[in-house]
Amino acid sequence: MSLYCGIACRRKSLWCYRLLSTYVTKTRYLLELKEDDDACKTAQQTGAFYLFHSLAPLLQKSEHQYLAPQHSLSELEKLLAKFGQDTQRIEDSVLLGCSEKHEAWFALDLVLNSSSPINASLQKPQMETELKGSFIELRKALFQLNEKDASLLSTAQALLRWHDAHQFCSRSGQPTKKNMAGSKRVCPSNKIIYYPQMAPVVITLVSDGTQCLLARQSSFPKGMYSALAGFCDIGESLEEAVRREVAEEVGLEVERLQYSASQHWPFPNSSLMIACHATVKPGQTEIQVNLRELEAAAWFSHDEVATALRRNNPYTQQQNGTFPFWLPPKLAIAHQLIKEWVEKPTCSALPA
Ligand SMILES: NC(=O)C1=CN([C@@H]2O[C@H](COP(=O)(O)OP(=O)(O)OC[C@H]3O[C@@H](n4cnc5c(N)ncnc54)[C@H](OP(=O)(O)O)[C@@H]3O)[C@@H](O)[C@H]2O)C=CC1
Ligand SMILES: [Mg+2]
After folding, report:
1. ipTM > 0.90 (yes/no)
2. Which residue ranges does the record assign to the Nudix hydrolase domain (predicted)?
């Protein structure tokens, strides 16, 4: 239970944390690290660093899953020296969060933003040997990470990618400067501040009362179907984006919709996935698939979907050469939305 006293006081630039809940003190501490470069630099002394190489995280294989190793500041300094890089590089790291004991977590890409060229004699395989791990594409590893690592590495990749793509001011053309935490970049010549951005995406599970509508793009792994997704257009509300995407992709008119949950998604460029349940008018369920966007779309029964959710190792080719119908993995919000539909009958009959 929170003991938040409602009074936020500052003492020698530090928040007075007395009487605040663990969550609130942690949040205030992270806010301070974002606002105060010196505090952030101090936090690096006791912090932990996740390493990347061209946006691929350093991972270690442990049985059926990957683990993301952490390095202390002193370990990182030694590694950078071995890789022929200046310890100044540590200032390119970005703040990801912190533990309840205020151990701050950072991410550093050993290749991106590097002003000093990487020691030509020390290439990626040698770095991996030195680091006792491998740099693996996040898309390939995400579903074999635990929830905490998946979330931290997704945030890290999204932030590192944003910094790499926003090194120059779009007004003056001058190089922008990152703050210590990496929560913004500033153009020194005109003081314009740039903040990391996410694109809002709606993801909708449409139901006709008994069945749900799932679709697949040709780029999906074989046999996998998911809920309908689409980027919000500028000026649209969430409700308008859902109605437009469903009409565009499958030619149906949404009658009712209800927000379910949201998730940050790092691919392709950092999106905020906003998940909704929607229903269509009875008798208006004939799908007209937009083949420019989708390969296929179909209605699935409750039993079919419940069976697919229980499938452990879905991506196995059957004897006749086809792949069974399967659904996105647990970590994806699409999975959570579909699971919620299976478990809660109210998702098929939304209130007016
Ligand atoms: N976490 C999850 O469970 C799921 C996540 N997703 C994510 O949702 C996202 C959107 O789904 P999708 O069906 O592809 O979206 P859309 O149906 O909106 O189609 C994608 C196309 O929209 C155009 N587009 C418009 N705005 C943007 C923008 N800001 N960024 C990129 N492309 C834009 C692009 O077209 P053009 O290239 O012609 O310009 C792109 O190819 C995907 O990136 C996917 O990774 C999807 C399903 C499940
Ligand atoms: Mg789409």
Report:
1. yes
2. 196-323
This prediction has a pTM of: 0.89
**Strand pairing class (193-194; 94-98):** unpaired
Locate the ligand 1 atom nearest the alpha carbon of residue 265 and give its number.
Answer: 1
Indicate if ligand 1 lies below 6 Å from the C-beta of 315. no
The 10s digit of each residue's pLDDT in 287-343 is 999 999 999 999 999 999 999 999 866 667 777 778 889 999 999 999 999 999 999
Q: Which residue has the tokens 């998946």?
A: 150
The angle formed by the CA atoms of residues 112, 116 and 117, to the nearest 5 degrees, is 75
- Structure tokens that stand for 83 in this block: 């890789």
CA of 241 to the centre of ligand 2 (A): 11
Residue 217 sits at φ, ψ, to 5 deg, of: -100, 155
Tokens 């109605």 sit on residue: 243
Check if the beta carbon of residue 24 is closer than 8 Å to that of residue 2: yes
**What structural domains does the chain harbor?**
1-35 (no CATH), 46-165 (3.90.79), 199-348 (3.90.79.10)
Residue position matching structure tokens 């949404």: 254
Are the CB atoms for 35 and 183 separated by under 8 Å? no
The letter for the amino acid at 144 is Q
Residues with Cβ < 8 Å from 138, sequence gap 6 or more? 55, 56, 57, 153, 154, 157, 266, 267
Question: Is the Cβ–Cβ distance between 3 and 20 less than 8 Å?
Answer: yes
Displacement of CA 339 from its chain's centroid (Å): 20
* 173-192 residue pLDDT tens: 999 999 999 999 999 999 99
Residue 334 Cβ inside 6 Å of ligand 1? The answer reads yes
Q: Which of 231, 264, 309 to mutate to test the pocket of ligand 1 (most atoms within 8 A of CB)?
A: 231
**Residue where the block lists tokens 């590192």:** 160
- Euclidean distance between the first and the last CA atom of the chain, given in angstroms as a whole number: 35
